[in-house]
Amino acid sequence: MKKVKGFLAWYRESLLPQYPFYHRLLKKRLRISLLYGIAMILVSYYTYISIYIIVRQPIQSMGSTIEAVEQSLHTYPSDLVIRIQKGVVFSNYDRPYFLWATEQGKKRLLAVLDTSADAWSIHDYQSELLLTGHQLILASSHAPGYDIISLNNATHVINKASVGTIIKTIELLKVILPYCYLLLVFVIIPLVLLVMYAGTTLLIALISYGIAHYFFSAVQYKRALQLTIHASTLPFAVFFGVHLVSSRFIAFPLLILLFLAFSLTALYEAYGDHASFHRGTNS
Hints:
- The chain is of the alpha+beta class.
- The protein has 2 domains: about 1-60 and about 180-280, no CATH class; about 80-160, no CATH class.
- The protein has 10 helices and 8 strands.
- It has helices spanning about 1-15, 20-25, 30-55, 60-75, 120-125, 160-215, 220-230, 235-245, 250-270, 275-280, and strands at about 80-85, 90, 95-105, 105-115, 130, 135-140, 145-150, 155-160.
- The protein has a 5-stranded mixed beta sheet. A 3-stranded antiparallel beta sheet has the order 2-1-8.
- Helix 3 (about 30-55) runs antiparallel to helix 6 (about 160-215), helix 3 (about 30-55) runs parallel beside helix 8 and helix 8 runs antiparallel to helix 9.
- The longest helix has about 55 residues, at about 160-215.
- The relative contact order is 0.13.
- The model is unreliable at about 275-283 (pLDDT under 50).
């Protein structure tokens, strides 16, 4: 409990770089600040991911989508046979085939088989997937609105039996997917995040050190790194907050800008002339 209170106190003091806390850090061991940085990142991330799971319910959403796909595949006609021979698609249907899925009461077109269609036809059908005479087209959010997978020299047969094999794979996926997701978000991503945090902090500290050393000759890179670790507190809180409510594209550039600004402010608060001014006014 004492360590938790100590961490919370440091977290509160680190949010905004200011004298005298950041000046006092110059007398603290770097190892303590390194431990603080690790704890801060993990606490911030686990708080973020917990809120994300509660609000967005990704596991339930994935489960609902997988269930909809599975039920859709059960409707695959027993007489429909699709042959892919050396990259060319053949079907025993003389008309397009539509595979529909119903998720949470909403019906959507999951896939279309139309050997006479082209890639742009996926917009006309408003389908997630389109199988043409030579290509597999996937709907995409980026321009031109689809991705093309060339069949090249592929040779496959799609019929009721092969679809049944896919259904069995989906049933297995429904069992293991929640555990894989939890492993990803609670173990793998935090480890990757720590590595990224270390690299970003070292770089920001180096840039800040180079700028600050021009004005304050007493600045050491070791102390610049220490101060930068604490200065990262609010920028990463903002970073995770933006991830929850807005575009993720702006999150990282915003993080870097805030991180650098807070790091430079931390060095100024620790080494600037105002430190002696504060000591004089407080005596």
